[in-house]
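A common beginner's mistake is to predict each chain separately and then try to dock the pieces by hand. The better habit, illustrated here, is to supply every component at once so that their relative placement is modeled jointly.
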Amino acid sequence: MTVLTEHAVAVPEHSGQAVPLDPLEVSKARAAKIERQGRWILPVVILLISIVLWDRICVWNEIPHYILPRPILVYEALIADWPILSIALLNTLKITLGAMLIATFGGLALAVLFTQSKWIEISFFPFAVILQVTPIIAIAPLIFIYVDSVEAGLLICAWIVAFFPVLSNTTLGLNSADHNLRNLFQMYGATRWQTLRYLRLPAAMPYFLGGLRIAGGLSLIGAIVAEFVAGSAGSGSGLANQILESSYRLNIPRMFAALILISGTGIVIFLLMNFLSHVFLHKWHESALKREN
Amino acid sequence: MTAKVSESGQGARASSPAIVSLNQISKTFSNGTIALREMSLDIRQGEFITLLGPSGCGKSTVLRILTSLTSPTTGRVEWPMEQSGQDEHEMSFVFQEPTLMPWATVFGNVWLPLRLKGISKKLAHDRVMEALEMVGLAGFSESYPRELSGGMKMRVSIARALVTKPKVLLMDEPFAALDEITRFKLNNDILHLWETFGWTVVFVTHSVFESVYLSNRIVVMAARPGRVVNDMTLDAPYPRGDEFRTSAEYGDYCRTVSDALHAAMDANDHL
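With all components supplied together, the output reads:
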């Protein structure tokens, strides 16, 4: 016979005093606060220090401004040449955003098509890979031979570079919907369209947004590279052309100004994509959630 | 010994008509594995029937065949109480995992079966809330699955199964991943709902204790090939509660069913 003996357990009385704060938790909270502030302050401080250092290096080594201009000169060029640079920026932005749009919707549509039939995917995916692995700089001259409009040529180049991450990520996402959920949809007699809309597309969302983040940066790179190859001057020319032209004229401050605008564009696109991810995912996806411990 | 475990056909509900009949069902996979061999089983209306057996005995395959996710290699599944030509049977499925859509709220998840039938959010609202109330989650309709505990997620999964008002509820080891306290609670809840609404429940488990606590009929299966080796009716009255769980009668049932399960597994060793 088994015997279980119960022991009396002393229940401590409530003293009414507040429980003292756990020093570990307090220090954790403080560390979290410092980290939140440091996330912004540190990069800004480092950036300022490097600009000052850049300036000092120019002065100390007496580097001529046509080799390495002082930051203030670049700033002046940015202001003085703004009428020219702003038009160039606008042109580059047009190509970049246009390519991004086509890459996004084209990549998404192709991915949906691929997941509707395994045979379509097997047949066409290799072509997407070939387009991706061939360096754009090698294809661009051909494209500009075959396409009359420079703008169209630029768009095609930027699109070729940008669409693959959207396509491959979204394809992966559409195929990664939970198997039991797929069974459930089948049991309830869901149509293909319903399965796509209510299950596969939402499941693919984090992957798609990841692809978009890469595509954003790549479409800018594609636009710039294509512009270098096209080498077109005139009204339609963008920031890459400004760089080329300035280098011919040894106008190095303007070159730097154009470079800064390109980087700035890239940063804005990156932040925009991060914001987009946050908007779509913050309610449910692991990547957008804070860890609890 | 007060506990009475009788062979098939002797139970109180034996007179109920069959809601679904498996006739000589066999299932052979393309790699040659025989998942089921000539299995016949009448599932009667209102039964809480448990399929109990070691892994690989084909319990889950039986459920997959019942849901038409797969079809038997030979044999027939008949639903004698339905008109011919009706291709959707009124049944729902509860998986071992909660299997919720993480991007949808609790409401959205429970709404899903109705939404797939084209019922709008407005029209579905009352039925969804009713189902949530049945599982005690009325206040959580706008929460996301990640905000819920494991037991609560399982309740959402059950609410989703109930929202279509099914006649047959198929459950594939639904509580296996939960802690014991939560499992006991959900056992009681599902029993209570079953008694209230009079569904037919087909429950798959490999826990002897759970099967005895819940069901009024236990079908013991053996593996390789999957087949029925014992079909027992439990006479213990409902409602069952903690008194039943601690009674000597319960212990006797468990011993009997456990012996049957061991016999089923021993049968394999001699093959």
